[in-house]
# Entry
Amino acid sequence: MERYARAELAAGVVIYEEGEVQCLQRRTAVQPDNQIPIAYEQLVRHQRANRLEILGTMLASFRERLLRAIENSITMEERKKARLRAIL
# Structure
């Protein structure tokens, strides 16, 4: 988490402290500018093979916090911000 010591970088991520979200067991940064896409078909395949475990859900405030992080990101291009806003 040292990367987010600078306030202008921290404003572009959603940080959850340990214990704040049931499914996140330690301090976690959700970086909207660092996405790892997972195809829906992969999720279905793992679920059918009993290799997918849902550990919990994000807090109701996650969407709002993520949108705020997107808007405040200094590392994300405006085109990518617009695309993310559209799908949220």
